[in-house]
Amino acid sequence: MKVFGIILSIPANSRGFTLLELAIVLIILGFVVSAGAGLLTMTMKNMDLAKTRERTAGAKDAVCAYTADTGTIPDNSSFASSVSLPLDAVNKQLRYIYAHELTGSSGLLNPACRLLSTSLTIRRCADSSCNVYSDTNDIAFAVISGGDNRNHQTDVSGGIIRIYPQGAEADDYPADGTMSRDYDDVAEWVNLEELKGGADCSGLRLRILNSELPFASEGREYKASVYADGGLPLDPPNGEDYLWCIEEENLTSPDPDILTFRTSTGTVHVDTDCRNLPGSSWTRGDNVTIGGTPPADTTGTYPVRFWVRDGNDPSGDNDYVANKRIVISIFP
Asked: Which of 24, 103, 163, 187 lies 20 to 30 A from 10 at CA?
């Protein structure tokens, strides 16, 4: 007998398979086929999950690139055109949740670099009850896939986006059909600082330029200046105009003052906690001029912490703030 091109010699006195033997063979083949099908299904699911994660991460990177070009993030109407493929592995639309104040409709120029906080928070829940969680504040945006079950289970409420463990019985997005089981959403998000890092906000970063100041001598007139750079000026037509505050203990408190600290508008405000002092109490000016003649017996080193803030938020205190500790040395 010839089977698949192979000649089999079967003795005349040999018998065939019994029904029991055939049944055993068929059962074994069934197990093999079933195991193979299960393995194939699991492999396909893993491939889809990897593809979904890749597309979700790709959409996140595309939004960051959009921000680098425009200084804003896209809104819902422009999200799909901003990413190359706004679909997950099962061809379901990716969800895009974003801080509205970072879009072009906010009215701010370059809000991604100007704002110091956002209205969004990622809350990573320990279980479906979300009584135990950890928060990440100042989220710029999140991109979310409904996962293998093709059902979005993640939404935002009160500025909080809840992310549950895989498999949890949770569904915060009833608009896509309620499925309070097997949470499998895939989420990618970017916080504001990460967004700034890719948007090249270095030109807007406020800083104090001086690293040191010239030494002073007793009985000799002293004059030096402290300068700032970057940020958003209070008075753009007239140059970079800032607000100043200083923290020190010994240079201005004795009577008479050892040295004076002034701007073009007056004496710089001295405080013990400039960080928490309202901007309305700071002293306006382009730079700080230090002057005076140190009297006798004032030899020593005097650390001074200079604080500067810009005009990012003229109606409030959401400004960029920088500070630097500089030592002024007085010699005999």
From this structure: 24
Which helix (H) or strand (E) element contains residue 21?
helix 19-70
**Measured distance CA(301)–CA(124) in Å, rounded:** 49
Residue 262 CB burial class (10 angstroms; 0-12, 13-18, ≥19): middle
Dist CA 212 CA 226 (whole Å): 9
State how far the Cα of 187 lies from the Cα of 194, in Å rounded to an integer: 16
Question: For 2-20, what is the mean pLDDT?
Answer: 56
For the chain, the first-to-last Cα distance in angstroms comes to 117
- The confidence band for 4, taking pLDDT boundaries of 50, 70 and 90, is very low
Cα(178)–Cα(268) distance, rounded to whole angstroms? 60
The count of other CB atoms within 10 Å of the CB of residue 77 is 9
Residue located via tokens 């801080």: 99
Is 5 in a helix, a strand, or coil?
coil
Q: Write down the pLDDT at residue 239.
A: 56
CA contacts within 13 A on the Cβ side of 147: 19
What are the domain boundaries of the chain? 69-198, 205-331
User: Residue holding tokens 């915060």?
Assistant: 172
* 205-331 CATH pick, 3.10.20.310, 2.60.40.60, 2.60.120.560, 1.10.132.60: 2.60.40.60
Residue matched to tokens 């948007």: 199
- Residue 8 above 50 pLDDT? no
Residues 307/298, Cβ–Cβ less than 8 Å: no
